[in-house]
Inverse folding.
């Protein structure tokens, strides 16, 4: 086996890729060649390290030096100083990764990682996802071997049931029970499906698992196939995730070549193969019956349940459908046992949850924490708090199906049940932080706009009901809200939740209902005072010049695209409100900060 | 079916036929074939839909139903560069609306439309999953992140002059 004295791990996740990690990788390759280091230093393109905010991220082992925002220009310094001379380039290190005496912290001492527990993401940022050998070296496919050679399908299901694992796609249904239903269903043919249609805006957990550790999903699906008696699986993945699609394709090819997919796996009677199916940009296809319709080649419209997919699913056959993150937990549960998994998390929610942290937060990126961690810990300790000294207003979880959680619930331990209790939901794991500059009515309108657009149109409560709610919200944000609008929204929301056909419609009113519950005063300010306290809703804003600060320099007059500003030189100017389009161009230009919005 | 489009695009239809042959006997062949068709032709004109319908022996109305249901399938020719402005939550709370407005102004088209010279198509897209870099736009496969409206003109000019 080849031996390398140093390993350079470069993040190849979508976040870092977008910040230019592919060019950094190429430059490293060239620089190493130039210095004849190719046989001493190994370059590895890995999956997501989680800290997308400071990408591209490069970690050099054995020292564990964590370089952040590495540009192409920085590479030659890292190579010539660190890799050639052994001197770490401290000014390029991530600011929180060194002690005061410049000694390097190990990753689990860094604030961002300290409270995390990476199970589903354990291999992300560690192995090369395009190399099956690296996965195998980290106990990959060992769980599949154990199941096939030492256990019956019933024993396999019992382990998953005993672990307490619940579906990570959002609703939190017990995974083992789902497996058991599908195993017991009668049918000559059964299917295993993976829901990788991660459509929630602001959520990229599943994408990171697929990009960073695709084999863990393949292995888990084969285990599920053995447990329920299926020989064919489908992964339904978003077409918007090109890197994930590419790595899955490579992984499936390698697994087939290694005999880990295909006929007679591990020399047993068990055969199992997988195929990839691409979505085409329909959010509703994340709903299980719609997803299966789409694989079958139809419009992705949900159908009423029962019959549940476990009985009558893909092509009319019993089908097991789990989400990516759920599958990523399976191999470890098999290897370490259900008791081990039981020790992590809260009473009713076992294990960890991956969250995609985004919005107004310093450390945007991907975090995985034990169930029961509080929002405050995630936002302030791991996430590093809100930028620019602004005040926290709300955290949005569960995407268009979830709700906004206000500051007073920051200390709620996060699990499936506690989030539902405070009017939100776990969802797939998007966690968007909002500060004082975000308008809650506008956010509710944003989500409704999304659901109206993505509603498949099959059932009237969703098709018509959400549209009516959006119209009311539109009116409110334009300053035409009426007394009684809030009550009407509440009533419509309640009815849609009770009567819509699928999960999309049943949860669509949540963002509105939760913002009304916690931020009713903002709705009232829009409706009664015709004011947007956060200064977001354009129609409710007025841009004015404060006469005592204005020196009459005339810069704003030039900046205004509609000639709404007039005034004598060297005396206070005024804005003609009938002409003003509230673009804010004058505010940016004013050197005296005399122009305000409000 | 109009014969001229078949003749003019003989190679493209041959390539499509290859994909159809590959998937025809598999379960649920329609979506992979339509993805490939759009890749080959750039969009899904009615002639292509009719061709697939005939080859798979399913009504063309079903194909049309699928083509219009999914937002990634398009019935109109697209520009050389497709600009996707991410309107996911993370980008939205960080000001992607202002980025979109700037692009509307710069290109003088509405989202969903294509410029007259078929250079640019503007789309307001769903979450691209690059939330760490919000707000984000994508021009074909290139991603631009951490944007402010004043960045837009410079970026577009780069493509205009190509």
């Amino acid at each position: 086996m080849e031996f390398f004295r140093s390993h350079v791990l470069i993040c190849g996740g979508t976040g870092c890729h977008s910040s230019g990690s592919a060019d950094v990788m190429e430059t490293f390759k060239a620089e190493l060649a130039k210095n004849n280091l190719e046989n001493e230093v190994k370059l590895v393109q890995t999956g997501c390290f989680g800290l997308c905010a400071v990408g591209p991220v490069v970690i050099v082992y054995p020292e564990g030096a964590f370089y952040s925002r590495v540009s192409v220009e920085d590479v030659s310094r890292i190579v010539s100083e660190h890799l050639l001379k052994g001197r770490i380039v401290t000014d390029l290190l991530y600011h929180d990764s060194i002690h005061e005496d410049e000694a390097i912290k190990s990753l689990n001492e860094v604030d961002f990682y300290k409270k995390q527990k990476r199970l589903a993401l354990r291999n992300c940022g560690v192995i090369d996802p395009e190399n099956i050998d690296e996965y195998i070296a980290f106990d990959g496919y060992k769980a599949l071997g154990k199941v096939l050679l030492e256990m019956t399908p019933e024993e396999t299901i019992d382990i998953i049931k005993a672990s307490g694992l619940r579906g990570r796609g959002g609703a939190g249904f017990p995974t083992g029970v789902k497996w058991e239903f599908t195993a017991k269903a009668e049918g000559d043919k059964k299917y295993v499906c993976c829901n990788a249609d991660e459509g929630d805006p602001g959520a990229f957990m599943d994408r990171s698992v697929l990009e960073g550790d695709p084999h863990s999903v393949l292995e888990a699906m084969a285990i599920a196939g053995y447990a329920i008696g299926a020989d064919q699986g489908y992964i339904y993945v978003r077409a918007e995730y090109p890197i994930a699609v590419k790595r899955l394709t490579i992984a499936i090819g390698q697994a087939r070549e290694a005999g880990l997919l295909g006929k007679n796996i591990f020399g047993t009677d068990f055969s199992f193969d997988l195929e990839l199916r691409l979505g085409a940009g329909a959010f509703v296809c994340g709903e299980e019956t719609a997803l299966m319709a789409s694989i079958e080649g139809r419009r992705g419209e949900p159908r009423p349940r029962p019959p549940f997919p476990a009985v009558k699913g893909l092509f009319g056959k019993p089908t097991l459908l789990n989400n990516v993150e759920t599958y990523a937990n399976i191999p470890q549960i098999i290897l370490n046992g259900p008791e081990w998994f039981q020790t992590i998390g809260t009473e009713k929610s076992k294990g960890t949850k991956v969250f995609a942290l985004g919005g107004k937060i310093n450390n945007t990126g991907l975090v995985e924490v034990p169930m029961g961690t509080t929002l405050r810990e995630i936002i302030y300790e791991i996430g590093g708090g809100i930028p620019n000294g602004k005040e926290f207003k709300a955290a949005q979880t569960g995407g268009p199906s979830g709700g906004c959680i206000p500051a007073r619930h920051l200390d709620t331990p996060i699990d499936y049940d506690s989030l539902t209790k405070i009017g939100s939901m776990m969802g797939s794991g998007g966690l968007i932080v909002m500060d004082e500059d975000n308008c809650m009515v506008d956010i509710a309108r944003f989500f409704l706009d999304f659901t109206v657009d993505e509603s498949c149109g099959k059932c009237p409560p969703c098709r018509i009901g959400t549209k009516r709610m959006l119209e009311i919200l539109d009116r409110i944000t334009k300053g035409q809200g009426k007394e009684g609008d809030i009550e009407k929204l509440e009533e419509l929301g309640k009815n849609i939740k009770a009567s819509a056909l699928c999960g999309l419609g049943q949860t669509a009113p949540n963002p509105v209902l939760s913002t009304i519950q916690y931020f009713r005063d903002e709705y009232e300010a829009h409706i009664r005072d015709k004011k947007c306290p956060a200064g977001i809703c354009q129609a409710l804003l007025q841009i004015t010049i404060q006469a005592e600060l204005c020196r009459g320099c005339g810069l704003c007059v030039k900046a205004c695209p509609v000639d709404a500003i007039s005034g004598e030189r060297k005396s206070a100017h005024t804005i003609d409100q009938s002409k003003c389009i509230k673009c804010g161009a004058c505010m940016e230009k004013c050197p005296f900060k005399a122009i305000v919005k409000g | 079916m109009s014969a001229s489009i078949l003749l003019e695009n003989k190679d493209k239809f041959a390539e499509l036929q290859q994909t159809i042959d590959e998937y025809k006997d598999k379960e649920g062949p329609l979506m992979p074939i339509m993805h490939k068709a759009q890749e080959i032709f750039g969009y899904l004109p009615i002639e292509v839909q009719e061709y697939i319908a005939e080859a798979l022996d399913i009504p063309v109305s079903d194909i049309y139903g699928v083509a219009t249901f999914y937002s990634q399938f398009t019935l109109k020719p697209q520009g050389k560069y497709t600009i996707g402005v991410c309107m996911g939550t993370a980008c939205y709370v960080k000001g992607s609306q202002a980025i979109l407005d700037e692009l509307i102004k710069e290109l003088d088209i509405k989202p969903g439309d294509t410029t007259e010279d078929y250079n640019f198509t503007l789309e307001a897209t769903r979450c691209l999953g690059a939330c760490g870099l919000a707000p984000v736009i994508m021009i074909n496969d290139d991603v631009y992140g951490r944007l402010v409206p004043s960045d837009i003109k410079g970026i577009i000019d780069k493509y205009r002059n190509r």
